[in-house]
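Hey, can you fold this one?
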Amino acid sequence: MTRLADYFVVVGYDHDKERSGSGSGKIIHRFPEKDWDDVPFHQGLELFCQPGGWDLSSQRTQPSFFVSVLTDIEADRHYCACLTFHETVSMTPKKPDDVETEEEGGLVHHTLMFAPKSIALISRLDYFETFRNCLGIIYTVYIESMNVQLESIIGNLLGSVHIPPPGGPQVRFSVGAGDRQSLQPPLNGAIPVSRNTVAMLFQQLGIHNVLCLFCAALTDNKILFHSSSYSRLTDASTALLAILFPLKYSYVYIPVLPNALMEVLSTPTPFIMGVHSSNKSEIQELLDVVVADLDSGYLSIPEHLNLPMLPDHIYNRAHQELTLVLSPDLQNADCAFPPPTPSPSLQPMLDKEIRAIFMRLFAELFMGYRSCLTIIRIHPEPVITFHKGLFLFERGLSGDDFLQKVLGGMSFQTFVQERGPPFRICDMFDEISANIQETLLQEGRKAERIIKNVQDIARHLFINENPNPQPYSQKIPKPCDGAFTRIHIPTFPRIDCVRVQEVIDDGVKKASMKAQLQTIRQPKSQFVPYGPPAGNITAQRNIINNNARRLEVLRTCVNSIFENKILDARKTFPAVLRSLKSRVVRNALTRELSTHAHQNRAMLESQQFDLIVRLMNCALQEDACSEEHAVATALLPLTASFCRKLCTGVIQFAYTCVQDHPVWASMQFWQATFYSDVEKNIRALYLPPDELKADKPDLNEAFTASPDVVRRTQGLLYDKSALEIAAEQIRIWPAQSEEERNEMISNEESTVFSQAIHYANRMVYMRVPLDISKGIKNVFSHEGESGSSNISQSIGGSDSLDGESGFEEGDSSDPAGSVIRFISKFVDKVCSEGGVTAEHQKSLHQMIPGVVAMHIETLEAVNKESKRLPPIKKPKILKPALLPGEELVLAGLRGYLLPDGREEGTGGNLGGPQLLPAEGAVFLTTYRVVFKGTPCDIQACEQVVIRSFPITALTKEKKVSISNTPHIEQYLSEAVQLRACTFQLMRIAFDEEVNQEKIEHFRKTVNRYRYPPSVFSMFAFNGVTTTNTMLQTHKQKDKTATLRKFASRTFLRGSSRKPGLKNKQMSRKGQKYVLPGEPLAVPRRATLPKPPLQDLTDSRPNSLYEEDDIIDESEIEIQTSTLKASDTLSADKLMDRPYVQDYQRLGLGSPGSTRQKSTEPFRISEVNLHYNVCRSYPALVVVPSTVADESIRKSLGKCHRQSRFPAITWRHPRTKALLLRCSGFHGKGVMGMMKSQVVQNTSTGTSTETTRSIEQEKYFQSIVANTPVGSHHNTDSLVSLNSVLTPTSEATGSPPQGSESPRKVGGGSSAIYRAMTGIRGSGGKGMNSFRGGQQPEGGQDAKDGAVMPTSAHKAALYVFGEKSQMKAIKTENFPKCDFIPCDFNEVRHVKASFKKLMRACVSSAPLTDPEVSFHKLVEDTEWLLQIQNIMQLAGAAVDLMDIQGSSVMISMEDGSDFTSQVVALTQVLLDPYYRTIDGFRVLVEKEWLAFGHKFTHRCNHTAAHQGSGFAPIFLQFLDAVHQVVNQFPLSFEFNQYFLKFIAYHYCSARFRNFFFDSECERFEYGTLFEDSRTKSGKIGERGDGTSKGIQIKSLWDYIDSIHLKTPLFYNFLYAPSIRDCVLRPYSDIANLRIWDYYINEDLRTGSTYDREVVTKATEPNEENEEGPLLPTDRRIINGCYDNIQEAQLDMFRWLLEEMSHLETDLCHFPMKWKFVWEKLESPMELQSTRTTAASEMVKQHGTSLHKKTTIEILTKGKEGSKSQTQPHHFETHSYVTPTYCDYCQHLLWGLVKQGYKGMKCSECGYNCHDKCQNLVPKQCGKVKISRESSFRQSQTSMEDVIRVTPQSTPMISGGQTTPTYYDHSWQSAQVSETRTHEGYLWKRGALLKGWKQRWFVLDSTKHQLRYYESKEDTHCKGFIDLSEIESLQLSAVALPGAPKKAEEKAFFDLKTIRRVYNFLADSKDHADEWINKIQECL
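Sure. Predicted structure:
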């Protein structure tokens, strides 16, 4: 019997502490005044009586009632029921009446105020309605002045009303106020009482929100309710706890949180709390709390909070059942003739039905949990643990985040402790959990059966709360309506404490006597039903059947090992290693090894021992990702069984060779394994002897896969489990005598203690390393990558980290101490849980150090003798050939070159020898990283494999974990992966002889050589002695390499000045940038001066903008050193520079203003001779003759970023159009805007602005004046840009003449025509807009909307710039100039694209996703789109200059990246000279080197640039040239290898050409005038043209020397006599190719771009007996091993070499190949004048398409999206396949929405909901595609677009996951296929669970089950690898969502290692036929 209420409290307003109307409460009365012995009184109760605060009120309010929950120190909950009313209080005003003003924020004190007062009951019981009645009676007696003593009511309530425990009878009582009340305890106190709170919670929030709250509570998240009602807060919290049953919430629980305790919300622990809605503002600041608004039904989940949800199948089932209960009419809502709607359940019954659904949910979620319970003690109390890993594995939910968190939470631990014992009092959940599997199968998703079962459970829940069906009429006195509004209300009376205590004492005495007479029957304990197991025996049987062939191979191999038939074992050994990926095979291996161990075959020979150890390592490695650890548990005793004898008295056990696996450092594994063994011993302790012998049969019989054996095994496995034995022992425990009990306790304690000793020894064996001096082996994570090179290895992420003591188990300084601490921690854990006595624990702790010391001493002898074993014969380390000047840094570290994602070298689908993995050594030189070795495959081991790349090309180095690799007999757990920007990838797994220190040293050395402190430490500067001044200057520059450092050195230096105050040092600061204007000195030890700055008070000119532009100080480097006046730099010394000679070739003048002729329009200016104007520009630049140097120096350079003013780089020889380059115009950056606050707009500043604007306009006018627009035109009909425009009827002017284009522009041609005419007519403004408001010269008014296109309106200068810069240009100041905004590739986008391209072309692992192929990855990189952008913009410049005769200025970014790409490619297309070898060199020297592309910065040459990332800007240009060479092979003197050669060496750091960021820096460091020809000596006379032992420092000299001797770079198809002067390549994606430079590989020589290495690798020697391929030789050429271009010569090269050999044989001096080639008469010269109509038409068509692209660029830039906008053409469309809305990304199709009609654009295929139609972008995707690139509009995929030669095709097999290399590529459709069986099947989808009919083909040759869209389809949609199948069986029940009229027995399931496939055949016979056919192929 328990008191109904423990305390009664009266809390009133504390007037003594009142402040400004808000005060605090105080306890006026409490009864009893003395605490109960069993229930102490709670302090701080007054806070919970008024959670919103004790405030006075000016109005009467009606009484309120709510219940708060208090928690004591023992985590027991107490319920505080509070009834609050108000009393009248007389208040005196604080101010006189005549003072009308009051203090702001203060409360207006009236003469009558109302103070709150609360009466409260505190109880341990949760009878809320009874509390409301009792407090209401007390209030009624008080307010109505009833003739009843309050003392008697309170005393009776506290002392006389006692409630029986759950299961007791109904209690009827009265508190003495004429009342009659009844109270019924529930039947089962463990089941919470919810009343109708759960139904109300669902009514407030909805199904999905409540399920989210449910998941949040289970996963230990913070939950906060808020509402304007305190009762609703309590009810919602109560409801949430009710649906959590059978789990108990174990964290902070405060349903009503007072305002004074709001800081509690910041607690880091999970909680369920409720606050009033008035605190919404404070709630918004919580970032990790799930907030539920009960009033509006809104649930707020923080964005960064990843809330795990229920598994999909459980969530869907729960949602369906809740919908059936809450909305029973929903399923019949669409019926034409709906059946009678069932009446909804009443609120109390509805509440129980919802709770019944959640109980079923938990039963399904925890289904089979009892089979994973491990009992370790039975007496005196059962101790049970839960095997979490086994449960997750058996349920197939190992990766489920939700279940992981639930099983790891405190609530589930309490659940196991309470419900784990097998003999106890059971409740409803035990019965539901035991029968849930059978119940779900019987229901079969049928609503009627579901509702019936739910209502049955709900009925039991309702009876539990209301066990007495007989109604009882209660009588509760209540106050009159409006009693609280009476004017004269007495105050609550004082209560006589003595009288109350007397009544309490009297009631307690009577209640105790009544309790002695009344006996309540207690529920009896019973056996807990076991329920279904977590796993399925039938599925396991089918798994064994399907793996029978693998198991037979495994048994044969293992038997061969133990029979010492090593050769036979090695034949099947690789197949066994591959089969160990299957869990069944791994378990079979453990059983087979256990059988041989029991047969006394544990002592092995050395080779036997090695093979067995390797099998163990492979099995452990494949099982590493499983939390079950079944293989590790089974192998643990075997590691101490198998051994080999090293010498007399020294034996090595297997555990010394398997210690590297992370499982041995997992405390969870050791605990689970220990508990499992203890359970076996406890079971054996109580099992009868006859049953113990026949306990478990030998599962080796499972190899036979006989159903009888499996059935017999199944019957014995579950006979007398440990839990059943424990239940029986617990049942008979009370009947045992004291002696028998003590004996049982002692036996069990001894069993646990003995196992603890045994496991302590096992842990010593597995944790103490063989070589103690090396420390404990590192434990690596299970992820594929373990971090970058900067992260050292540790075990911080493993389970061995001691979170309490703060030490790590892997402390390398004290391995023995780490092992002792690890074992001691384990012993403390298991012994405390197992009830081991303190004496035994102490003895065990004392024993551990001695065991560790003894084992270390034993291992010393083993380690010593193991090193004396005859070493395994390993291949000889082959040393690589070195270049002249190249030196070895690290000698060869033995290791293995592992295969990566490229399939060519693995001998897979593409055939050929299996060259990888290869065994050899990796070398680090001053220039390269080289691996050289031989293949591990015996059939290919005679070849030499070399893979290398320059050390400066390294982009990323990291450690990766690896799986088992065929042909490698060592256990390798990790590898070092090196990725280079030359598209090479090395995955090096080091040999066991290479220790961890050497590996780390190798990694650190690689990074040190990759990022040296300065460029002078690189290979190109080998032998150069650097002075301290040079190094200091370079370091000083590197210090400002980053923006943060540069800002701190420049801007922040002066930012501390207060704005508005004049700085006294301003003049000095302004002069610090000014240096004497003396001639520039030779830059050996000096640095260059910077351009002088004007006084900072001067403001910048407007230039091209309407706003002031401020030059950012960050663009100007600070220079503090001075120069010497000797050996000055002059223009004469620069005359030999290639770009100066090219200026003269183009007729752009000579250096010096005095040398210019008066008629020459241009001159080579010396304004930048000292690099004063722009440090990144060349010393000599071409400018118009009319522009003075002073104008450039003072004004023009200030208008562009980094002072890169417009410079002329090329002039068209026919149209005289100019090509100019510059940086973007100045805009206000962050620093510029901050400086503008300091700059004052004085009169001087205004004058300077005007001057600069005028000078800029004059410069543009000079360019326009020297551009004779339209004076030169060809007679071709398609030469004019106007000719490709389709005339429209809307234009009043006559259209341009010319032949019609072969292909029309499209629907927007008229718009393009009008746009172009508007552009040309306006001189740069948009359509219908003219400069100065004048009318166009065509005689047409601007209002008419059409303009006459005349040549007079063509712009003379087109400026291509950034969109952000072009918008604000004042075009009226620049006549005949047009400014075109355009898109360009930012450097960050190029970097991101290049990273994706490297991963696509050289992937680190084979592609496993069938949906992701190589071509798809290339498409996702957007690399080709960036190449297309460069080519299109260059093509536009070509058309404008060549056809229209207009000049073009490229003004992008800083003028050194994208600008260089476009300008250089434009010159390649326009000028044939640059298509020669010499001309291309000049072009690179001019546009890239002289004009300051930042090679050092973009290539990350030094440590200062390490963080910027590699940016392949120059590589993109070479790729674009490669695309042009592919399309015009007759127009280039050089071939593709020439471009690859430059692409390789521009980032190899072998030559000095591509160093430093400008010509100025090259001059500073003395490399500008370096003549490599004279410094390197005479070029050698070798056949390859390379020097003998002399290092050439210039790439161009190196190319010349090779080109002189061999036509390696020459294009024999080069025909200069018939070439087109101007090239117009196609730029559509369909015409672009992936450069084979990215995907080709040469494993024979390593790199074909270092010719000395190639020569040495192909010369016959002792390592390589094969010489060069002679014409009479025959040799097998492999695409990835040999260089086909050199191994298989073309006819030209073969004839030239043959002529050389003949001349040598005739004793004639052989002529140079070039001389012989030039003497030959070209047969093409005779046909040079012949043209056909077809070729002319093709040429015209290409020209037309090229000009259309130009027009699109111009119109898009001028009109933006307006001229190209085309609306969508939406049509209603029915979707029958899964489709998502392209706007909102929500599903258009699904289980509920099959056949849903949405909207689909007929032009671009845009899909959307009808409600989203008005919100989608107006731009139709069709117009974004070029009119001629129809590859995207058709079904052409990237496979058809990207054309690569077969030998260079990368790995495109997307479906390979196992080493069973089958061909899954798209090419397989062309190969003849074997169709064993085929037909239609219904297949269930993996994501949306929808059923689709597919045509399936069973191919026994390729071992595949492919499926197609239909029988006629030739391209398969996917396949199932038969090697991955684990089981195949008929489904037990029909699956949901299947087609109608489907036969229930026609379903069958196919389980693979990836997923479970569900199929439906036409009939059961067809299903059986499919199963038989598939099993025959297994």
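The first strand starts at residue 2 and ends at 3. Let me know if you want another pass with a different chain boundary.
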